[in-house]
Amino acid sequence: MARTRYRSDPGLIARMGLTMFLLGLVFVAFGVGLVYLIAFASSYRHGGSGVSSLSGDSIIVFALIIGVGSALVSYFWSDKIALRTSRAHLVGPNDSPEARRLHEIVDRLCALADMPKPRIAIAPTQMPNAFATGRNSKTAVLCATQGILDPRRLTNEELEGVIAHEMSHVAHRDVAVMTVASFLGIIAALMVRMAFYGELFGGRGRSNNQATAILLPLMMLLSIITYVVSFLLIRMLSRYRELAADRSGALLTGQPSALASALVKVSGDMAKIPTRDLRAAEPLNAFYFTPALRPGQGLANVFSTHPSLQKRLTQLEKISKQLGQQQLH
Question: How far is CA 292 from the centre of its chain?
Fold first, then answer.
């Protein structure tokens, strides 16, 4: 975590650490499985059977190259990708009344948190939302939509709570953490696809190639299991980091009720956004203050990048009570 005045929650940090540890175990198990599969393919090569060029270690190498490339692009250029995807543009404090309001809030929060000011951008959409991205405070960009900057929608205190939440992601370097955590899932997903096409075009058409007939389905099964487990763990980690951002943002401003009010308003407004607009915004759901989705229940929450609204409000209510008790003492 960067040295700022953003406070963290030891309990959440422990849960995030456990999740990263489990991801590491999955990574080790995945690697061991691949070693055995490569050894299996090599034994057939030495026996003279031969393996298709679309199978075995060639798939692993291609997946690693593409996966590493994707991770590096996400790590170094996440800010540019997010701005381009949201069609946002950087703004100065004198560009518009909305820009001035946003800059004033960010200036105040940077002073409170003792952290460098990120670049400021506005996205031309009426969907109320905001996001922050960038691998560190020097490359960070904070973006708010025109919809959330409408003064009729959120008060200054509510908007400040939203921005404090987003700047917490920058302070905690969440982009770097999630990029590292997602690497295994990217590799597994690529291997599933490559093994599928290897089976489709390189395996079934060669009845004499016993290695290909066995190796590709096993590799596909291993990759699917790894992808599903890592996907669920990454989603869990993402939800923990959103709760951590809510907590540290609320403690920085000292107004958890304002953040809770903003959550209720923004989440409620999502139900009024046309489905077409929500789908267009889905690529940025992992970045957004609230996901561009209609509220889900049950199993949908397991796959969500964000905790349920009720869980976030419950945590903010506890923080509000804690701050009230501290003031009494």
Answer: 14
Candidates 160, 166, 199, 242; catalytic one: 166
| Two structure tokens written together for 289 | 């203050």
Question: pLDDT tens, 263-307?
Answer: 999 988 887 788 777 788 888 888 899 888 766 555 566 678 899
How many angstroms separate the CA atoms of 110 and 314, rounded? 27
Determine how many CB atoms are found less than 10 A away from the CB of residue 295: 16
Inter-CA distances, 327 with 157, 203, 310, Å: 20, 70, 26
Distances (CA, A) of 165 to 43, 179, 197: 54, 19, 43
Q: Are 213 and 50 in contact (CB under 8 A)?
A: no
* Known catalytic residue at 157: no
Sheet hosting strand 130-133, strand order edge to edge: 89-90, 119-123, 141-145, 130-133
